[in-house]
């Protein structure tokens, strides 16, 4: 009986340390109950040795086997699930393995209490060493969990840096190209790409300094993001140019963005009225990401050629007019 209880405790500790990814939580609880019943029955045996009519084996052994069978059945049913197991929000050290160690230590001391002093001393020494090892392991596991959390945070930070502009926090060109490609792979109708270029941004940089220019870029990014409908994406193309992936009525969204920028943007202690040149390119069946961005770029430079604060939608005739001539910002 003691051997069965000890094996149950070892099995539970082993399973508990494998993590809770593919293991059903209720099955783990039933397995813990199995070990507790076995260890509890073993600890009662020395106390009832003088009373054979109170033998608990006939009650506890079937209960142990029954709980073990329930745990196996529960795990078998859980293993048939096809949905992925969610990643736990945080790593927490399970106290159950250490509770099992304490139960085993108590069982050992209880068994040795009725024997010689030498045996009791050996049992106490064994329990002390076991507790010291368990404590050291607990400290190591806590340190490892902290290191893994730091590693996860660093990986998330690197992933964010790889896909986002360092200054504005917007998506970068890599993310934009991927999202446009995915949008074109579905139904391209109702999908548009727009490029927004700030007029006279170089003059702001020269007159007020690059720090104010950077703050203006961040403020404009926030203004654009606030006007976007669900399912949209804004990215920084570089410099003072922004790219937008827009569903639905893109013309209305772009008009709202331009209107909001004209109401003045606060940057570096200055209230700046920002004009922007906007080029819009609606997607068509068979378009590629590069072609759609090229057409939006052509439309944007067509808008800059017409003056400040203009919005132009791409047409095929623009390719001939805009070919090598570009209007400076």
Automatic annotation (TrEMBL):
Q: Please give the organism.
A: Paractinoplanes brasiliensis
Q: Which Pfam families match?
A: GGDEF
**PROSITE patterns attached here?**
GGDEF (PS50887)
Q: What are the GGDEF domain coordinates in residue numbering?
A: 189-316
Entry protein name = Diguanylate cyclase (GGDEF)-like protein
């Amino acid at each position: 009986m003691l051997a069965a209880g000890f094996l149950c405790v070892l099995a539970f500790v082993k399973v508990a340390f494998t993590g809770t990814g593919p293991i059903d939580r209720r099955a783990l609880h039933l397995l813990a109950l199995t070990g507790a019943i076995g260890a509890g029955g073993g600890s009662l045996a020395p106390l009832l040795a003088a009373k054979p009519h109170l033998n608990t084996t006939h009650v506890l052994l079937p209960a142990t086997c029954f709980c073990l069978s329930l745990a196996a059945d529960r795990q078998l049913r859980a293993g048939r699930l096809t949905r992925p197991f969610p990643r736990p929000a945080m790593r927490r050290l399970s106290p159950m393995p250490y509770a099992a160690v304490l139960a085993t230590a108590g069982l050992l001391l209880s068994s040795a209490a009725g024997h010689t002093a030498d045996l009791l001393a050996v049992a106490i020494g064994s329990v002390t060493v076991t507790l010291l090892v368990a404590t050291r392991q607990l400290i190591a596991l806590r340190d490892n969990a902290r290191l893994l959390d730091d590693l996860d945070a660093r990986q998330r930070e690197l992933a964010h840096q790889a896909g986002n502009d360092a200054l504005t926090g917007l998506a970068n060109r890599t993310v934009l190209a991927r999202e446009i490609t995915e949008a074109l792979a579905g139904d391209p109708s109702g999908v548009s790409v727009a490029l927004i270029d700030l007029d006279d941004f170089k003059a702001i940089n020269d007159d007020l300094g690059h720090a104010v220019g950077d703050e203006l870029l961040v403020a404009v990014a926030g203004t654009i993001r606030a006007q976007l409908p669900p399912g949209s994406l804004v990215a920084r193309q570089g410099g003072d140019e922004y790219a937008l992936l827009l569903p639905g009525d893109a013309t209305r969204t772009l008009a709202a963005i331009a209107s909001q920028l004209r109401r003045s943007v606060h940057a570096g202690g200055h209230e700046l009225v920002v004009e922007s040149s906007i080029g819009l390119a609606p997607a068509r069946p068979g378009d590629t990401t590069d072609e759609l961005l090229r057409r939006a770029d052509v439309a944007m430079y067509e808008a800059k050629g017409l003056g400040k604060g203009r919005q132009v939608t791409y047409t095929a005739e623009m390719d001939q007019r805009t070919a090598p001539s570009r209007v400076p910002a």
